[in-house]
Design goal:
Layout: H1 6-16, E1 24-25, H2 26-35, H3 42-49, E2 53-54, H4 56-70, H5 74-91, H6 101-110, H7 120-127, H8 137-146
Antiparallel strand pairs: 1-2
Length: about 150
């Protein structure tokens, strides 16, 4: 399988997003998967994806996961996931499952990676897909994999 470019994936995403709401439903995603030789029930797909719809960055991450899985890199994906979870726990100081702008700034300062010109709220906002003002693990993972 020849990997697709991010621009090609964006075009595919836009074509599949029938109602142009910026999200692919599992049904829309399954149409593409069936055409490319993957057979999933909606229940299996929801189990794989972990939610009922995907935005563009989640779609790109899902594509990379499928591509790597098909190429036999399952152990590598699990290792990356494990490493990201460990990193997430470093930033999630209170263990509530979220990273706030205060936690982000505190950890970056302790690591010597903080520049006073940075704004931790805008850093969080850039990847906060549900707009709750903090990052959950999925948002953190997308941030780490996209940067």
């Amino acid at each position: 399988m020849c990997p697709l470019t991010p621009k090609e994936l964006e075009l595919i995403f836009e074509k599949l997003d029938i109602n142009s709401d910026g999200f692919l439903t599992l049904e829309e995603l399954n149409l593409l998967l069936e055409r490319t030789g993957f057979k999933f029930s909606i229940e299996e797909l929801e189990s794989l994806v972990g939610k009922k719809s995907l935005d563009l960055s989640e779609f790109m991450f899902f594509y990379d996961s499928i591509l790597n899985h098909k190429n036999g890199d399952v152990d590598e994906i699990e290792e990356i996931e494990s490493d990201l979870l460990k990193a997430f726990k470093v930033f999630d100081l209170d263990g509530d499952g979220f990273i706030t702008s205060q936690e982000l700034e505190y950890v970056l300062k302790r690591l010597g990676m903080w520049d006073e010109e940075k704004d931790s709220r805008s850093m969080i906002y850039s990847y906060d897909t549900n707009l709750d003002g903090k990052l959950d693990f999925k948002e953190f993972k997308n941030m780490m994999l996209l940067t």
